[in-house]
Amino acid sequence: MTGRVQVKICGINDGATYDAACQAGTDYVGFVFYPPSPRAVTPEQAAMLAARAGTGRRPPNVGLLVDATDQEIAEILRSAPLSLLQLHGQESPERCAAIRERFGLPVMKALGIATEADLALMEAYAPCVDRFLLDAKPPRGASLPGGNATAFDWSLLSGRAIPRPWMLAGGLNPANVASAIRATGAEAVDVSSGIERARGVKDPVLITAFIAAAHAA
Ligand SMILES: O=C(O)c1ccccc1NCC(=O)[C@H](O)[C@H](O)COP(=O)(O)O
């Protein structure tokens, strides 16, 4: 790996968290547009957060969507200034391509990884997406398709060529992110639960520790 590992802080839903993430040097800000999530924001809330000027930095905003319709995406984009769409549902390669084409934004497809067969799916998606987010599958009975503090077997990625730029996600936290980067060669990491003091409530101290650990790896 060359250069500094990039970090995405996902599920930002209040001003103090936005400021802490920016001050600590996050490379991406993630907004969850999935109403059942405790981390969800409205497009208007995302717009207000993204307009905060206090930190002097405004990293690119990533919009997390779960099987959203064109109408829902258009509604979100009317208010929220997004640079990248993270598709975290059951979107097919064709649906990813259609969203990318229709909205003119790069797409990052989240894939749940548990076996080699899951990784093989990347070949079908690669022509239709700009990035991958390789995450754990939701545990049995989980109410959310992501953000469940669950890691997958990182050794599946060891020495593996990934056909697009990608982020590692799933169960990362300040204590394990350096090991995860070493084990997988990830050039970018994404975190939500591992920097929370309660579900949906981020902790600025953990945010700072996570970004420092990832950048030092
Ligand atoms: O965070 C949510 O509430 C969420 C809801 C629906 C789909 C995905 C969701 N989160 C995804 C993420 O935050 C991350 O991209 C990834 O799954 C890592 O989450 P975590 O294991 O909590 O760090």
From TrEMBL:
Enzyme superclass (EC): isomerase
Catalyzed reactions per annotation: N-(5-phospho-beta-D-ribosyl)anthranilate = 1-(2-carboxyphenylamino)-1-deoxy-D-ribulose 5-phosphate
UniProt KW keywords: Amino-acid biosynthesis, Aromatic amino acid biosynthesis, Isomerase, Tryptophan biosynthesis
UniProt EC number: 5.3.1.24
InterPro entries recorded: Aldolase_TIM, PRAI_dom, RibuloseP-bd_barrel, TrpF_fam
Domain N-(5'phosphoribosyl) anthranilate isomerase (PRAI): from-to ranges: 7-212
Presence of keyword Signal: no
Record bears the keyword Hydrolase: no
GO molecular function, one term: phosphoribosylanthranilate isomerase activity
GO biological process: L-tryptophan biosynthetic process
Pathway: Amino-acid biosynthesis; L-tryptophan biosynthesis; L-tryptophan from chorismate: step 3/5
Family per record: Belongs to the TrpF family.
Annotated protein name in UniProt: N-(5'-phosphoribosyl)anthranilate isomerase
Organism (species): Teichococcus oryzae
